[in-house]
Design brief:
5 strands, elongated, alpha+beta, 145 residues
């Protein structure tokens, strides 16, 4: 959900705290329970997620406190670009390059495209710590349960 100051917010419960980081458990929305499509739903909001969030200096929440975590809208855009748009361009580009310019057949081009996409995700995995410094959630407000 996005609010008026152009950030994305989620409500959850603190699972545990380690130093200046809180691990916040985000539970599925109550609307998911009554949804007719839940058996085929692939939405991340359908299952319980734990998100690592930075605590603000001086904040002292406790485990099981209800909190709101937020991230700048630019974080969501950046995440979508590196997770979906760039890999799509790589896969399509590899297929076009191998089929149109190298003269490979479609099956070989498709294999090359999928391999190139897989390499992108391997690269993301290798760079996960650097990406974690750019994709930051912060604990905004707390209230005891």
């Amino acid at each position: 959900m996005t609010n008026k100051d152009n950030s994305t917010n989620f409500c959850g419960t603190i699972d545990r705290i380690a130093g200046s980081k809180a691990y916040v458990k985000i539970t599925p929305a109550p609307a998911c329970a009554g949804c007719a499509a839940q058996s085929v739903c692939a939405s991340p909001s359908k299952r319980e997620n734990i998100i690592e969030a930075q605590l603000k200096p001086g904040a002292q929440p406790n485990p099981n406190d209800r909190v709101t975590i937020s991230a700048a809208a630019s974080v969501g855009i950046f995440s979508a670009v590196i997770a979906f748009f760039i890999p799509l361009a790589i896969v399509v580009g590899a297929i076009v390059l191998t089929v149109a310019f190298f003269g490979w057949d479609e099956a070989a081009g498709a294999s090359a495209g999928l391999s190139a996409g897989a390499l992108w995700y391997v690269g993301l995995y290798i760079c996960r710590k650097a990406l974690a410094r750019k994709i930051i959630f912060t604990v905004e407000e707390t209230s005891a349960l």
